[in-house]
Amino acid sequence: MTESPVPAHGRAATRRSRRSEATSQAPVNRAICIGMLPLAALVLGLSWPMMRAGIDSYRAERFLQRWESKGAPDAEALAAGRAAAQHAIDRFPAPNGEYLDRLGRVLSWNNVAAPYGAAEAQASRQEALDAYRASLAVRPGWPWTWLRLASTKLSQQAFDDEFAEALSRSGALGVNRIEVDRDIARIGFEGWSSLNTEQRVLTLKAAGRTVGYSYPEAQNLYGLAQRAGLNVPLCWSLSEDIRAKRHICKKEGSS
Q: Which of 68, 76, 96, 235 has a CB 3.0–4.6 Å from the CB of 249, allowing a cystine?
């Protein structure tokens, strides 16, 4: 059975109906488009500075990567890296924890070779500390920023409540992350004489996880402990099995 053809006058009526419907919807569509213009302008206005901020942030990160591979920067490179990191912060339309952390990392390269507690490095280290504080106000759950704050406090030889919180928070948020454990152990060994019992326990636990991670990590950490004169406490905190597996602590409780 075939379908009945649609009469010509019926098709014409359908076309007229559709044209009439489209004509009636045109003012509504225009109103919607006009209403969307402010939103489109807002999106465009935000996306452009965000894109520029991202470019500046990328430039700052490239500076950091270059310094980490080639050593401390000269004054010109440091100024350029700082400008890029600061521009990223200034151009982003809201506080950005990542960008603030990156500024702190750039600032930490200033006087990087100065001894801990050196008077000439206090100002630049304080600037880095302020950047890390601002970052944590926006992104408090990031263990690496807490760790960098603790490391900066160590460089200032400021073992106060802020240092204690930074060390504790980095340990709690970054547990079992080798980069965090390795640095907690380093900070703890370098500041050992100024740590309380709880902080020393935290240091040794992080050191134990680092030793357990791999043979190279164990050897590097054991060398750090030896240089700090802390190989005995480290060895006492490790099981006999892990000492034998990593070939450290030849005599129990000592080196």
A: 235
